[in-house]
Structures are given as structure tokens and as C-alpha cells.
Design a protein that fits this description.
- There is one protein chain.
- This protein is 43% helix and 6% strand.
- With 132 residues, the protein is mainly alpha-helical.
- It has a domain of 68 residues.
- It has a two-stranded antiparallel ribbon with strand order 1-2.
- The radius of gyration is 21 Å and the shape is globular.
- It comes from Arabidopsis thaliana (Mouse-ear cress).
Length: 132
Amino acid sequence: MVTKTKTMSLSLTLLLFILVSTVSVTSTLENLSPAAENKGYWCVANKKATDEQLQANIDWCCSYEGGFRDCTQINPGGVCYEPNTLRDHASYVMNLYYQNLGRTKDQCTFNGSGSEVTKDPSHDACIFISYD
């Protein structure tokens, strides 16, 4: 009888753990998914930026000197590869740089090619992080 009670107790504990884990993971994923719910500040390439500036920003942000941001998302197959434009790719990595260095106006200047915005630039599965 003791063994059966221990087995039932273990089964109930395991079931409770699975339920709690499922709810926790599901609510976490739901909180990350909707880009439209993001509030805060982002750094994006401005309309005055030249292609040369944009490419230099990508090169810098993805380099060791620039902090070696994870730029795989803008590579072919990455969730932020489309639209495949310098402006979109630069905006994504410029925002990573900006967010990771404290979100100050100075981290978004990029020699006059960056602008802080309050409208979330995320699109489809491409999520622009904001730590606000």
C-alpha cells in the first residue's frame, strides 16, 4: 500500500509540474509574439541615410568592434531577411546596438543616419526588441 501511495503521489507531482510548465511556457510565448503590443523606443535608419552609411552601420554593428551583435536574422533564411533592403537590415542591427547599449540618443546617431522612433518597426516574424 505504501508503494502505491508513493506512486500516486509521484504521479500527481509530475502532473502538476507538467501543467505549471505548460502554462508558464505558453504565457511566455504569448507575451513575446504580438509585435503590435510592444511599447518603447527603437532606433532605425532614417530617410536621409545613404546606402554607404547603411552598409557601414551593418558592418560596424555586426563586427567585433561594434559588439558583434547577432546578425543572423538579416542573413538569407533569417526572420528579418525580408524585405531584403539595406535600410531594413541596417535598422534591425542598429536597433540591437541601441538597445544593448542603454537606449540613449547618442547610441542612435550613427553619424546622422539613425533616428529614435516610438512606433514599433517589427513586422511579420521579425521582432525589433525594446527593453522598455
